[in-house]
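Q: A reviewer asked whether we had any structural model of the full assembly, not just the individual parts. We don't, so I'm hoping you can provide one. Inputs are below.
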Amino acid sequence: MRAGTLLLAALLSAILLALAACSRNDDTAVPPPRSSITFLHYFTDSLSGGIDEMSQGFNNQHPALELKAISLDHEAFKTSIQDTLKTDNPPELYSYWAGARTASIVDELEPLDELWQQAGWDKAFAPSVIKAASEYRGKKYFLPLTQHYIAFFYNKKLFDQLQLQPPKTWEEFLAVCAALKARGITPIALGARDKWPAQFWFDYLLLRTAPYSFRQQLMSGEARFDDPQVRAVFARWKSLIDKGYFNSRPHPNELAWDSGANDMVFRGEAAMTLMGTWNLAYFSNNTHQWQAGKDFDFFPFPQIDPAIPTVALGPIDGIVMPKRAHDKAGAGTALRYLASAEAQRTFSRYSGALAPNLQVPDSAYSDIQRRVRKELERSPVFDFAFDLATPPPVAELGLDAFAEFLAFPDAYPEITRRLADEAAARFSATRAVKPAP
Amino acid sequence: MKLLSRLRFQQKISLSFGVLIALLALNALVGVVTGLAITRQLDLQNDSEQLTSKLDRMHDGVTHFVQTRAREDAAETFHQLDQVRGAISGLQDRTRLLGKLPPVLDEYRATFQKFVIELDQKAALESQASALSARVMNDIVAIRLSESHPHTHSAVDTLSDQVSSLLWQTQAIRNQPPTAATAQIERLTLELARLQGESRVQIRQSEQQRQIYRILRDAGSYLNSFASALQYQSRNRQTEQTLQSLSEQIQSAAQQLENDTRAQIRHSILLALILAGSCFVLTIIAAMLLARQLGRGILEPVRHLLGTTQAITAGHLDERAAVHNQDEIGELARSFNQMADSLGELQASLEQRVAERTRQLSESNAALSHEIRQRQHAEAEISERERHLRTIIDLVPHFIFARNNQGQYTLANQALASAYGTTPEQLLGHRDADFNRDAELVAGIQAADQEVIQSGKAICIPDDTFIDHTGCRRDLQTSKIPYQVADATHVLGVAIDITELKQHQSQLERIAHFDILTDLPNRVLLGDRLHQAMAHAQRHAASLAVVYLDLDGFKEINDSSGHKTGDRLLARLAARMKDALRDEDTLARLGGDEFVAVLQDLHDQESSTPILKRLLAAAAEPVHVDGKLLHVSASAGVTFFPQADKVDADQLLRQADQAMYVAKQAGKNRYHLFDAEQDRMVRGHHETQERIRQGLAGNEFVLHYQPKVNMRTGQVLGAEALLRWQHPQKGLLPPAEFLPAIDNHALGIQLGEWVLDTALAQISQWRSLGLHVPVSVNIDAIQFGQSTFLDKLRATLAAHPALQSGDLELEVLETSALEDIRQLSDIMLACRDLGVGFALDDFGTGYSSLTYLKQLPAQVLKIDQSFVRDMLDDPEDLAILEGVLGLATAFQRNAIAEGVETLAHGELLLQMGCEWAQGYAIARPMPAAAIPEWLARWQPPPEWAHCAEVRRDDLPLLFAAVDHRAWMAQLQGWLRGESALPPAAASHDCKLGHWLNGDGLQRHGSKPAFLELASRHEQLHLLGQRLIALKHTGQLHLLQTAQEELDMRQQQLQHAIQTLIRP
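A: Here is a predicted structure for the entire assembly that you could use as a starting point for your response.
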């Protein structure tokens, strides 16, 4: 009897356990499928810091979505993107350069105005940034992610030794250069092997001597490159070359901007170089370990004509959404996150760039970043460097012309005339393909 | 188990079945669940296999694209990727076995995208490089062809060749491994840089220098692009490898999924089998255990019980069942034990009771022999009592009898025997038929007897009949009851002689329906007959008449000759009237001297006439009663049925009564037919009443005022308030139009109160204007008779504080005043104290006795206008007037004449000494608003002012003058053909003639006016005679002129009379 009862109880509990096991198996919640948002970006190498953290932050907040950031060499964004955009399977998001490059692909992009309105991004970004970077043909397409600033980066120890102050005017600048030259130090290092670093000189010399409106006309093909104001820029640039203020050996066209020009400054062979704020990361990296404000610092390009309002220069990197993107809602959600002060702050911490989002507090920045921010705020206008301000085919011509000018400074009248003719031809070709709206 | 043993048997069974059913249900459940689970797993397996095939297809697609690098292949691959992703999403909801497949797949997709882009970019770079190389070659050709310095030219040539060869070298690099290729490119770049430097030295011409710079620059760009393309190629390869590795991961994951799914299915099926098997085994075991448990719980105790039962049967009464279960078996065992206990006790008590019985039996034996002795004694006593009883039965005056089945008497008492004229003994053994010759009666008796015998129940025959030996029929009330003698049933009966009772009863019935005095149907029976007759008339479309008769002068006979005589008279008249009717008619006496006849089956109303006449004649015929010849008559009212309106019996009687009253009023000894139309009109009053009520509420009534004056002095004494109805449709209505409708009605009182209140308000208003116009108001007797009249009057007076004593006078009809003289006089006295005067209205129309008049404190007598109006022509009215005036003088009351229509009336009144008057000659009734102006304007006619009262002695002349006017009127009426005979024409036949020859001659014979009067009188009569003659002779054309002369002479005569009378 006792044994029977025990058997009965054992069997019963076995059945119950088995049933429970079955039901547990059935009841266990399956995690919802995550739909992935592909984000193709060019923040490679030294620029890639922060992207992975941003993706992680997003994925933690959105269990139904997965932001998949995939890096590509930035060259890939310049040409083949035109093809990819037109396929039926573009990624949901691209990183891109604000300005003429975005303008060149805007036909294939999704307008973000509705999202912009909902997210209240008008409050998050400065009107000057929105105007310059986000708006194309009256609609918003571009979400700013980083903002860089082009300025002189100088060897502060050297300046201190020679008791030099960062110059504010053209005269002071020339004086500083003269003082440095006299001590046998190359005042200015220019590494233009990749062509684009030379353009900053053209840009700033033009922006400090000619009205901003002229530059806009020039960039859009309404003014010619052999205009006297342009020729004056080259003349002024040539005078600096003639005075030997630029490095001559190695020639700028053979010098890299980073390992070349930057390291000349680092070694004290040269005093300064005109470059973007990505130099902050370069000088602070493990190889150099310079301290900003102590070992090196920056100063804005000096004033030449007091009557011309200051214009700040620099690229703005950001994100666009292809018109044919599959998951636009998910992409929108990702954009909202990437626009947030939190995400942008994360990104700026690694890249050394400034976050365009105004809600990122000053406390998030280093001292030098704060000063950069102040400089930006001081300038009523912000615009992009030459190769991002004019259509890519024209930009290519310009960069070649700058290189030729560096090789043959005396030939600038001929070079500008030739540039003017070729650029005009390319502008008209561009217009023929895409009539201005 | 202990718990189980404590349960009841029924609960055990229930529990067992419950457990089994639960286990069966569990089996079913497990079967269903496992089935479902396995089905799901199989589905899953199917899907995962499909997924694997899709993955295979995708992989093929990618491989294909890597080979072809065609854009459409890329698109196809993307499409397959999306399909796989969709399939995975579908699976993700159902299984966890997918593992890292989804993320790897996403990674794969992204990498593939990257791969495609890199491919594109590489292609772009390659095309860029080839474009640059083409440009370089073009530039080289161009610079070689250009004009230049020979030195420069050779330098350019050398350079060009070097650049060309450099470019060609790159083609070889393309297939080298990446590191070697990079080193080669670096070498080439350095070479270019060297060429650039050399060119500066060798070429002096700046133009060529820059051209060479550009060529070298483009070549460098070409090298860059080439290097980049190479770089992309290697990157692309890396990406491809990544893709490859991802693909392998996917493959293995898919494989893993398939394996896992299979394993899971195996696992599930195994688990399901174990589960189902366990359940089944569990069920079997449980069933066995329960069966065993139940068997043990039932069989063992039953077996034990059986043994105990057999032991007890064998006589071992002390044997008990030792079962201690708590269930029903336990209870059975306990009951069984109790039963065995009871069995033992019962046996013991049985033995004890047998002993007791034996003792009791011997005791009762002794008692029985004692009782036998006592019974013999009692029997003797009973036979004695029977003898007594027999004597009593014989003494009872009612019939007591018993008969057997054959109707033979077995018992009969003296009373019955006497009725049959025999003795009780002789009656025994005989039947009724032996004494009774009425066979029907005998048969009835026998039938009743049989009924009692057969039914075995008592019966009562309340109207039994018996014929005694003298042949006299008697009424009996017989009771018969069945009476068992040995085995036969007899009838025992008692019959009571109720012959006298019956006679009494029929007498009472007669009294209830017939009048004792006349032996006619009374009111009750009349009602019945009338109802029957009405029903009969309706059925046969015939007519019937109801005649209401009231004897005229019967009361006087009753009063003078006594009731007995009256009664005899009534009986005789009733018999006669009954004889005057037909057989089908009914005559009933309602009481007193009132009778009703119902005449049936009349063809029409006229056919009732001879019967009615006979009826009246019968009533009017003199009757000899108690030696006197008495003479009465009858007034009859007749109504007929059916009528246009629906009527009932009571209404018919009322109508006939009403008509009888009319006949009485019309002079008695006649009949009057009820006029239904007139009756309806009378009833129409009701509507008028309602209208009057509305009129009163709607303020439609007004008061007009007719002044009363002293004709001689012109003094205005006051005004009489006269009620008028300003009817919205009919215009101004006099009281005669509406007052009859509210005669004797509460509305009359209401109206009277309104009149009083309005009149008082009017007096107040006049007073406020400075006018003093006392007002007299007519008061209805009903209003007067109200107990609250005085209080109301007081309140009304108080409401008008401006009034003064004597402002109000109440006029009461002389006729109504006579009805309750005491009450009236009390009220009048009370009113006088309030300052309210009284007048007796229409004085002269009643029969006021002087005594009454004396008692009434009315200060004014209003002479009825009918007397006044006719007094100029009617000597009788004048006589009444003179009488009234005399009364007034005697009782010191003021007399006022109403209806003074002409100056002549006024003059005559003044001559007779009546100065107060009211009438059209003074003023017509007028609205209150007109009174002030009238007062201001009115002056008495001068004739009146100079008219003196004649001396009493001359009054006969006045009368004679009136008489003469009457003669004149008579004559003129005859002349107009209005009367058959002319008045006496002779002058001495008229009263004036008498006066002239007698009294007048004595008193005024000497006066010339008398002589003139006498002569004019003579002439007038002569003229009258001529006129009569003219009419008789037919000379009518002369009549006109003669009549004019007659009028003139009449006026002369009257003038002469006045001249003589005036002092």
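A: Points you may want to mention in the reply: The domain at 118-238 of chain B is CATH 1.20.120 (Four Helix Bundle (Hemerythrin (Met), subunit A)). The two ends of chain B are 160 Å apart (CA to CA).
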